[in-house]
Amino acid sequence: MEKPTVDQVWEWLDAVPDPEIPVISLVDLGIIRDVAWQGDTLCVALTPTYSGCPATSVIEMDVETALRGHGIEKLELKRQISPPWTTDWLTEKGRAKLEDYGIAPPQPAGGPSRCPQCHSTNLERISQFGSTPCKATWRCRDCLEPFDYFKCI
Amino acid sequence: MTRDEALFEFLLRMGDNTLILGHRVSEWCGHSPVLEEDIALANTALDMIGQTQLWLGLAGEVEGKGRTADNLAFLRDAWDFRNVLMVELPNGDFGQTLMRQFLYDAWSFVMTDWLKGSADERIAAIAEKAHKEVTYHLERSGDTVIGLGDGTEESHRRMQAALDYLYPYCGEMFEKDKADELLAEAGIAPDPAELRAEYDDIVGRVLAEATLAIPGGDYVHKGGRNGRMHTEHLGHLLTSMQWLQRAYPGAAW
Fold first, then answer.
1. B56: exposed, middle or buried (C-beta count within 10 Å: 0-12, 13-18, 19+)?
2. Is A151 on the interface with B (CB under 8 A)?
3. Mind listing the pLDDT tens digit for each residue in A5-33?
4. How confident is the model at residue A149, as a pLDDT?
5. In the CATH hierarchy, which top-level class contains the domain A6-85?
6. Percent of chain B, pLDDT > 70?
């Protein structure tokens, strides 16, 4: 088999959904840190979002399954913790998809900019934590819908 | 004592603190006063267990005997643990759990902040990752201590009682021995006492806002971080945490 280009591999990885928030891809989430060929071995570096995120090992399995499905035989997955993951690495495409899905994307100010349902800015925080380590729980005071906020780290 | 032996000791101290406190906090899962607090405690516990994997993983690597983070967590007995006594104490009520979390988070915040500049790159990388999580934990535990301390008469009374009980355990985090001296000389880890001023500053500020009084007296409960003597509570905790590996050695899924 001819070696696929690195760009091709990035494209494949962009089709692998995040297991917890399947509306965005692993590339959107910014956790794929590097794709490179070393000889005939494809090396992919991943970084965990939170150190204890239980999705990390599922993600590694999903990456492996996807790349094997595209015929990659020699594959090396590397877990890299430095520099630590930051929500700045979310892609613009990913941020837009999050909001469409009902999750407010992270903001440098530390809270959501608007309600993902009705776009009101009249909001309140319910809890600093949410259904996964990367989220907090907020509520819109206008439409009264609770929603997840992808917290900024 | 070689530098690697000192490093192993230090990494066990870091990893055992997060492991044992992570386990304690996870005991709240399904029992918290309200759902949001339940989720928050479980998430905090999860972060600490994640940090444990990094610290104990590196400890095993430094030791060089092929032990993994799991081996160190599940196959040691009480006398080999190096966590400070405060983290192994039973949870008490919700307020006491949050007070302990705050007193620990403030130390962890100052410690990981220092370690970000460690001469050992592996430690600096873990610290940089952990510090982000700890910053978030500290914000939450500090806010909760203020909310409950400066809350109702009942919540204030309970938070003051929690502080009176836990404060004498704080000093152990700043104890120093030969391992600390060796690592401090090499720029790998701080002289623990050096962290005290910043810690006192954070704790003092939050407790003042919480209308709580720092108890007098200078007695310090210690013996965990050097392994001399743990409290009776650690053994009981391990029987639960290590039960599966004790009953079914080597079990995996």
1. buried
2. yes
3. 999 999 999 999 999 899 999 999 999 99
4. 95
5. alpha beta
6. 100
Q: What are the structural domains, with CATH classification, of chain B? A: 3-247 (1.20.1260.10)
Q: Is B50 on the interface with A (CB under 8 A)?
A: yes
- Rounded to an integer, the average pLDDT of A105-124 is 93
**Partner-chain contact B126 A81, CB within 8 Å:** yes
Q: Is A54 on the interface with B (CB under 8 A)?
A: yes
The amino acid at residue B33 is P
Q: pLDDT, tens digit, for every residue of B91-126?
A: 999 999 999 999 999 999 999 999 999 999 999 999
Dist CA A134 CA A93 (whole Å): 18
Chain B interface, best mutation among A51, A79, A88, by max B CB count within 10 A: A51
DSSP lists the bridge partners of residue A41 as A38
DSSP assignment of B157-225, as one string? HHHHHHHHHHHHHHGGGG---HHHHHHHHTTSS--GGGGHHHHHHHHHHHHHHTT-PPP--------ST
Domain extents in chain A: 6-85, 92-150
Q: What is the pLDDT of residue B253?
A: 76
What's the ipTM? 0.85
Query: What number of CA atoms fall less than 13 Å from residue B96's CA on the CB side?
Result: 16
Interchain pair A52, B46: CB under 8 A: yes
**pLDDT range class, residue A110, cuts 50, 70, 90:** confident
pLDDT digits (tens, 9 = 90+) for B151-183: 999 999 999 999 999 999 999 999 999 999 999
Q: Where are the alpha helices (DSSP H) in A70-104?
A: 92-101
The rounded radius of gyration (Å) of the Cα atoms in chain B is 18
Closest partner residue to A51 among B44, B50, B136, by Cβ? B50
**Chain B 52-81, residues with CB within 8 Å of chain A CB atoms:** 53-54
Burial (0-12, 13-18, 19+ Cβ within 10 Å), B49: buried
User: In the predicted model, is pLDDT for residue A108 greater than 90?
Assistant: no
Amino acid symbol at B215: P
